[in-house]
Design brief:
The chain is of the alpha/beta class. It contains ten helices and 14 strands. Strands 2-3-1-4-7-6-5 form a seven-stranded mixed sheet. It has a seven-stranded mixed sheet with strand order 10-9-8-11-12-14-13, covered by helices on one side. α9 links the parallel β11 and β12. The chain binds S-adenosylmethionine (SAM). S-adenosylmethionine (SAM) binds next to α6 and β9. InterPro entries: DNA_methylase_N6_adenine_CS, RlmKL-like_Mtase, RlmKL-like_Mtase_CS, RlmL_1st, SAM-dependent_MTases_sf, THUMP_dom.
Length: 409
């Protein structure tokens, strides 16, 4: 893989342009945004830089081919036409992850099984012995996507998806994915050089991702990648990654800005505290118990307040009237002079109840929930116009977040 090959990095819907910008900075070439990801060209070392340094990509895939495939036999024949012996040996363990979209097949497990059979048979025919399947920790992860009659097959360079940074040791009810949190920070142009507060920090994902940016720490530093175990490329990939990891460690910087998390739930704070410790950011991130509608004094004259408040669908909220009233109070409390505010909301009532005019907006998906990311300039900056006279909002119909059929990795 000294030459450049075509790769596809996946990302949460609505963040593809942010990933494209990031990939450009990481040295990828011929970048093309697509639905759910970004196509690009890279050499092995450029691809490894993406695995180690991309904060937004969920997977980095090496597409092997796309085939028309009808019925069970069609799936098998399409998969069997790939020269798997170039990517696996009888000593390599592998797994097949399959997803479906508008397909005649209804079970992704069936598609995965057909592809698995084709791989096993092909390697046995060519090499005289078959490779074993390991669903827990395979050396090679094959990704099969069947959209209508088109079967696309790829190898996943990362193995575990990239949002698994290794620091989430305590789960909470509605955490942001690490890659989505990083995308929000990039959308808000956060570079780690200003103070940051998450007033409803939950398990601390936004704070930890901000801490990694402020520290200039590679998000993949504490994990390994499947490509390091590939028969053809593994040795070279390990050598290159050893150097890249050493460089990344050498080039980390001290964090000089305050990073503060607030949450009213002691259990969420306990989880955040454990995650922060696992991310080795305990010195950089401060956590306090408090109410976002009555914010304590902020730790700097200005900076970024960024958060995703409860939407009212997953966390039990006391009804939509209660949510509107809560958002109204947040509008009063979070608009602090000198501080810009970015909010990811999955509740369509948020924007009017928050009663300020956003200067930036984008639609994005938090897993299956359609969300809007809203950016507000600092209060008192003169450039934002309040949306009329603040008043306690009236009740509205219950929120029904839209659901998307596809899983987002
Ligand atoms: C959607 S979760 C945030 C998830 C977080 N971004 C993460 O990645 O884990 C919303 C959080 O808001 C907190 N919360 C709700 N009302 C609050 C309030 N009035 N003040 C502070 N925190 C509050 C909840 O305890 C919950 O942890």
């Amino acid at each position: 893989m000294a030459e450049r090959i075509a790769l596809f990095a996946t990302a949460a819907r609505g963040t593809e342009d942010l990933l494209a910008d990031e990939l450009k900075e990481l040295g990828a070439r011929r970048i093309r945004q697509d639905r759910g990801g970004v196509r690009f060209m890279a050499t092995l070392d450029e691809a490894l830089m993406v695995c180690l340094w991309s904060r937004i990509a969920m997977r980095v895939l090496y597409p092997l081919g796309a085939f028309e495939a009808h019925g069970a036999d069609g799936l098998y024949e399409a998969a069997a036409s790939i020269p798997w012996e170039e990517h696996l040996t009888p000593d390599t363990t592998f797994a097949v992850d399959a997803t479906l979209k508008d397909s005649e097949h209804t079970h992704s497990g069936f598609v995965a099984l057909k592809v698995k059979d084709a791989i096993v048979d092909r390697i046995r025919d060519v090499e005289g012995a078959r490779p074993d399947v390991s669903t827990r920790d395979p050396d090679v992860r094959v990704v099969a996507h069947l959209a209508r009659d088109t079967l696309s097959l790829s190898l996943d360079l990362c193995g575990e998806p990239l949002h698994r940074r290794g620091y989430r040791v305590r789960p909470t009810p509605a955490p942001l994915k690490e890659t989505l949190a990083a995308a929000l920070l990039r959308a808000a142009s956060y570079t780690g050089e200003e103070a940051l507060v998450d007033p409803m920090c939950g398990s601390g994902t936004l704070l930890i991702e901000a801490g990694l940016i402020a520290r200039k720490r590679a998000p993949g530093l504490s994990r390994d990648f499947a490509v390091e175990r590939w028969p053809e490329l593994g040795t070279r990939a390990r050598e290159l990654l050893t150097d890249m990891r050493a460089d990344a460690r050498r080039n980390e910087r001290r964090v000089t800005v305050p990073l503060l998390g607030v949450d009213k739930d002691p259990e969420a704070l306990e989880a955040a505290s454990r995650n922060v410790r696992a991310a080795k950011l305990s010195e950089e991130i401060q956590l306090i118990e408090g109410d976002a509608t009555k914010l304590p004094p902020l730790p700097a004259p200005g900076g970024l307040i960024i958060t995703n408040p409860p939407y009212g669908d997953r966390l039990g909220s006391g009804g939509q009237k209660g949510m509107k009233s809560f958002y109204f109070k947040l509008g009063e409390s979070l608009r602090v002079p000198g501080w810009r505010v970015w909010v990811l909301s999955g509740n369509p009532a948020f924007e009017s109840a928050f009663h300020a005019r956003p200067s930036a907006r984008r639609d994005m998906w938090n897993g299956p929930i359609a969300c809007t990311l809203l950016g507000y300039r600092p209060a008192g900056g003169g450039s934002e116009a309040p949306l009329g006279v603040p008043h306690e909002p009236a009740d509205v119909a219950p929120v029904r977040p839209q659901h998307e059929g596809e899983e987002d990795g």
